[in-house]
What does this fold into?
Amino acid sequence: MTTRRTAAKRFDNREIGSITHFEHVNFRVPDHRLATLFFIEGLGFTRDPTRMVSVRNMWVNAGQQQFHLPLGEAAPFAGEVGVTVPSLRETEQRLAGIARELRETKFSVRRDGETLEAISPWGHRIRVHQQGPQSGRLPQAVPYVRFQVPSGSATGIATFYAEIFSAPVTVRGRAGRKQAKVTVGINQHFHFDETPGLVLPEHPNHVAVYVTAYRSIYDRMRRARLLMAPDRDDQFRFAKLADPESGAVLFEFEHEVRSLHHPDYFKPLANRVPVPYLVD
It folds into this structure.
């Protein structure tokens, strides 16, 4: 049984648990033309040419990961998505180049130290990093999602992932607040930052991960009554992150959980930026 003391332990960053791959973030957006300007022209990612090629949805490839952008009312969550690009300077220039066409939207971009803070036309916050150790050898990637969470919840959230998913976790303090870091794949992490006075917005966004020991994890979630719907085609969903000891819900964010038998596991993704072979 993982205790709170164990959950706060620092694990070797090279280790992963049952979560083997964080695949995509799903945002609803009302306009695919503006999404193309921001994600494709500005950030330099690639619209997937084989899936969701009609007018109701679009998938955007970023290395071995994706943004899924179905049409709908946009509602950003409290936090940010981190991405890596081959050249921060060139990305900054491209984003500046689309500013005029996005001037009537919430779009903005600013240099923030060694990163860019890019705001989508609807207010989604994207943190842009220069390619490097954060994404391994991938020039483009989505290495992390950072969630703002209520005060006092970080340790319980870490324990939830450690117990349910056998995920390596770290909890540490920063500026008097706790932060939980959860490994969700190779060079992939979810960060949970305690934020005093946080008012969480309602939103339809979700993340998707693949897991080993799928049936065992599913049974744990079922016993904890955290499933949104029963297993279907090697996939289930949940949203509530609950304290394993008390059962109290600490935070909510929808997760799409898939087994390694799911047909989309590491499906080949077309990228305009070549993805290098990952083995030494």
Remarks:
- The longest helix spans residues 154-165.
- The mean pLDDT is 92.
- Residues 15-153+186-259 form a domain with the 2,3-Dihydroxybiphenyl 1,2-Dioxygenase; domain 1 fold (CATH 3.10.180.10).
